[in-house]
Amino acid sequence: MIDKKIPIYLASKSPRRRKLLKLLNIRFKSFSVDVREELQDGEHPVRTVKRLAMDKFNAASKKVKEGIVITADTIVVLNKEILGKPRSKKEAFETLSKLSGNTHTVYTGFVVANLSSGKKIIDYEKTKVTFRKLERKEILNYIDSGSPMDKAGSYGIQDDYGALFISKINGCYYNVVGLPIAKVNKAILDIIR
């Protein structure tokens, strides 16, 4: 069980990550950090998500001085190409068209750190997701809902409509939502021991 006296902070503006962390039945405060999520050519996806989660941790640790800080970053990779958050409806359409009928990998890197003790865990999770073949009209309808615009890979597995695109998943569902909650829970327990 997680000690209720230790302050816990989630440094993320993602409502999905906040919702997932609530599954642990812990009290936490959340705040956002302003970090440029820059991709580097040729960098392995695992290294990318760990680096970005660490960048967010470095920014978050300037805002709080004690307690546990959690940061995360999620990317979608198809054929070695990282498909980030779309910058336009056109880009969302291109991304969803690429994912249509294919299997991609979702990576989430995270940092769980106890600022009081100095203990820190940097880890990641990966999940394979297969899309069924999508019709142009359903992609356009999904984009019109506005849902793809703030999500890596231009879709949300937890969305009513986005969930309908998926024919198979191999790995942690919660990782695809944005936080591999079982691994994060274990990391929290490990750093407070």
UniProtKB/TrEMBL annotation:
Family, per entry: Belongs to the Maf family. YhdE subfamily.
Main location: cytoplasm
Residues at the catalytic site: D73
Keywords: Cytoplasm, Hydrolase, Nucleotide metabolism
NAD among keywords: no
Protein's UniProt name: dTTP/UTP pyrophosphatase
Class of enzymatic activity (EC top level): hydrolase
